[in-house]
Amino acid sequence: MKEITGGICAPRGFLAGGIRCGIKPTSQKKDLAIICSLTPCTAAAMFTTNKVKAACVQVSQENIKDGKVRAVIVNSGNANACTGPQGLAAAKKMAEAAAGILQIDPSEVVVASTGVIGVPLPVNLIEKNIDTLKAELRDDVLGHEAALEAIMTTDIRKKEIAVEIELGGKTVRIGVMAKGSGMIHPNMEAAKQATMLAFATTDAAITVDALEACLQNAVKKSFNRVTVDGDTSTNDMIVVLANGKAENPIINSEQTAAYEVFSAALEFVCVTLARMVARDGEGATKLITVTVAGADCEQAAEALAMSVASSSLVKAACFGADANWGRVLCAMGYAGVDFFPDEASVVFKSRAGLVQVCKDGVTVPFDEKKAKEVLSEEEIEILIDLKGTSACISVWGCDLTYDYVKINGDYRS
Amino acid sequence: MKEITGGICAPRGFLAGGIRCGIKPTSQKKDLAIICSLTPCTAAAMFTTNKVKAACVQVSQENIKDGKVRAVIVNSGNANACTGPQGLAAAKKMAEAAAGILQIDPSEVVVASTGVIGVPLPVNLIEKNIDTLKAELRDDVLGHEAALEAIMTTDIRKKEIAVEIELGGKTVRIGVMAKGSGMIHPNMEAAKQATMLAFATTDAAITVDALEACLQNAVKKSFNRVTVDGDTSTNDMIVVLANGKAENPIINSEQTAAYEVFSAALEFVCVTLARMVARDGEGATKLITVTVAGADCEQAAEALAMSVASSSLVKAACFGADANWGRVLCAMGYAGVDFFPDEASVVFKSRAGLVQVCKDGVTVPFDEKKAKEVLSEEEIEILIDLKGTSACISVWGCDLTYDYVKINGDYRS
User: Fold this and answer.
1) Which residues of B188-223 are buried (b: 16+ CB within 10 A; e: fewer)?
2) Are residues B340 and B259 both part of a single domain?
């Protein structure tokens, strides 16, 4: 596997574009994107588990049911959530507009939205500008860049990657882009239900069932292990489109070597973007990786790690580079799973080195200056060992800063 | 029922005192308190459900088992949590020191601690200064004030109340004090397992069983409905001591009018203090009351309300007085309970008036200027109606501010 450029336009046969249509009234930023395949695709998606589902989620869940989707239309600046029948109609109009310029059926379109909740979506702006969007469709990195810019809200960094793998003598490519900065604690379910949005393209030949299995595995180990603020959005969504243009022998079973290779590659790109989402959390100055080894089971390890990564007190301590490790144990204690606090060890780690702060549940003498250095780095890791049998898992979060409060104290202006 | 002065020294036969013994090395504030009854008491307590329990919690759980406790010794500045066998020994020494000056058995003492986790408690400072503490014991409001000051950490406001009720021709008094500002999301269980600390005294004559029942009801409807930052402490604790000095006919059954009156009074004082804890949340500028009416059941209503009060995004919006009501519905959506978003109405309310922002799950036109006025008040309420059958319940939280980040970015210095 090697990293390549081109993002979601790296796989053969995919086009993308992005424009400004005016949904963000006070901004000159792009706000409407489209991604599509020249030919039919197999597709898989996962959506938010929030009981309040945006209109786009409802429409997309319906359209993805048959595994046949070849385009995604996305607006930023408005979530089209809590907007009633009018919102549902608007989401359908978005699908129809995209279908119109691509000469496909609206049921082949996934619709995604991100932005403020509860404000009617000015879908007329999308309809009015859809031909401009069509004119901007490109199959190169510029198409990818324009689409990526158009899906961003409070995002500061661009989150994308593409890789190339070999399958049956053919070169297969996977590209993925994501947006997400606040209201991030994705908890997505298979083909059912972040405002984390992620869109992946691949020219692999793969069946819907195999693609769904790959996606579920990848999301479980990536986006569902990210938290910025503990708020699971009404709009979270990940979609992967596979158009088969690589002409590899079709991946049609989980019991094949090709499946393993493709699945590992999809997991790699999703984990890479999940880390980027955490690092770009609203106001964040640091990426925090929480790794738990030796829990009772993987599920327990994940619950413990997510509890630590979600703790406002741990997050604020990381912002201040304060080795207040007691907050780590405290957060594990209310995770709702059993573990033996007396067997816990905690190590803070970064490029600056590592410092053990807790052994067998109690403090060990440590160099405060060194700990401060370790925690002052931009990427820090909290390593927790519980001496049990489960494998080591990692989750990703960020620090809690003044800027998070600033950004969210007046989000709508 | 009427409010009276005197706090925990208002009930007859109770003494209290507080001094500085040096546990907070960089501060001149008091850090050691004692509360005791001149005569034996029946007692009930509830402790944190965190799997990581401070040494004081472990010792106190043991001592309260027989329902006979007549003193509470409390230090601030150090949680004595994650401190191993040494910490357990230190907690026992605290009980012994208190017992020594009061000439009672150490098993009649409850021990409470609050402060940084994972640092060995310098119990020698407590032992060295215990006679000074004895000399400061008083049965008047000054004893109450000194003890209250000594249990505070990042608290800015003093949280206390006392009331008087009539039972069987006798005047019965209840006094309570609490500390708690950060790491506040109490989840306490009966006689088992908040760093929310609350201490109540009463001169009522009441059996242990009746006292426990009263306390469980009161805590369920008060402290367990408060959140500042979602972090459930390793040290949360509430203790009530009843010495019978009021000479009322003993309350020995839940099926009596006297029980009802006493229980309602205890609930009132606990709810009053729970609101004070939320208002005094670290960095808070506002008390936020979230009220849910018409859920499927009380448990669902509580889960929905706590999810809204815990949401960083809702809290930041309240800080900014931004009527971003979509975040309210979003937080309800991930509360993990069923409800019909399409039937939800949301109203923002304060002294400045009320503004409906959502009806039947969708936006209603509202005056943004008025909404800003309503949300700019120091006490605001988010009223949610789901049109179901359950009773109306309220929970309490606070806004998320720059100062929360500041306080917790460098708590240990």
Assistant:
1) beebebbbbbbbbbbbbbbebebbbbbbbbbbbbbb
2) no
Tell whether pTM > 0.90.
no
Among B48, B51, B113, B369, the strongest candidate for a mutation testing the A interface, having the largest count of A CBs within 10 A, is B51
d(CA A75, CA B13): 69
Give A-chain residues touching B281 at CB under 8 angstroms: none
Quote the domain boundaries for residue B271: 2-279
Chain-chain contact of A324 with B234 (C-beta, under 8 angstroms): no
Nearest to A316 among B83, B339, B409 (CB): B409
**Would you write out chain B's pLDDT as a tens digit for each of its 413 residues?**
999 999 999 999 999 999 999 998 788 899 999 999 999 999 999 998 888 999 999 999 999 999 999 999 999 999 999 999 999 999 999 999 999 999 999 999 999 999 888 899 999 999 999 999 999 999 999 999 999 999 998 888 899 999 999 999 999 999 999 998 777 777 666 433 337 899 999 999 999 999 999 999 999 999 999 988 888 888 889 999 999 999 999 999 999 999 999 999 999 999 999 999 999 888 899 999 999 999 999 999 999 999 999 999 999 999 999 999 999 999 999 999 999 999 999 999 999 999 999 999 998 999 999 999 999 999 999 999 999 888 899 999 999 999 888 888 876 65
Give the CATH number, domain containing residue A248. 3.60.70.12
- Pair (B338, B355) in one structural domain: yes
Dist. CA B49–CA A327, nearest whole Å: 15
How many residue pairs from chains A and B have C-beta atoms closer than 8 A? 230
pLDDT one-digit tens code per residue, A279-316: 988 889 999 999 999 999 999 999 999 999 999 999 99
Name the closest residue on chain A to residue B319, using Cα atoms.
A409
> A187–B334: do the CB atoms touch at under 8 Å?
yes
Asked if residue B98 and residue B35 are part of one domain, the reply reads: yes
Amino acid at B296: D
d(CA B413, CA B404): 15
Instruction: Tell me the average pLDDT across A77-94.
Output: 95
Nearest to A330 among B117, B334, B335 (CB): B117
From chain A, pick out residues whose CB is under 8 angstroms from the CB of B361.
52, 82, 84
- Which of A279, A299, A327 terminates a domain? The answer is A279
Positive or negative, the CA dihedral B303, B309, B313, B318 is positive
**Are both A247 and A193 inside the same structural domain?**
yes
Q: What's the pLDDT score for residue B192?
A: 31
Number of structural domains in chain B: 2
Interchain CB distance below 8 Å, B231 and A334: yes
Is B113 found in the same domain as B227? yes
Does A195 qualify as catalytic in the annotation?
yes
Single residue among A227, A252, A279 that ends a domain in this structure: A279
ipTM of the complex: 0.83
Q: Which residues of B are catalytic?
A: 195
Residues B176 and B296 in one domain: no
Residue of A42, A48, A195, A201 marked catalytic: A195
Q: Do B404 and A312 touch (CB under 8 A)?
A: yes
B341 contacts A116? CB cut-off 8 A: no
Q: For residue A319, give the nearest of B116, B335, B409 by CB distance.
A: B409
Q: Any alpha helices (H) in A184-252, and if so which ranges?
A: 208-220
Kindly write down the DSSP assignment for every residue of B322-355, as one continuous string. ---THHHHHHHHTSSS---GGG-EEEEEETTEEE
The CATH number assigned to the domain holding B313 equals 3.10.20.340
The residue with tokens 């359950």 is B390
Task: Tell me the sheet residues that pair with A16.
Answer: A35, A138
| Phi, psi for B285 (deg, rounded to 5) | -110, -10
Chain-centre distance for alpha carbon A59: 20
Within this chain, do residues B179 and B327 fall inside the same structural domain, yes or no? Answer: no
Same domain, A328 and A273: no
pLDDT score for A319: 95
> For B405, which of A86, A329, A402 is closest by C-beta distance?
A402
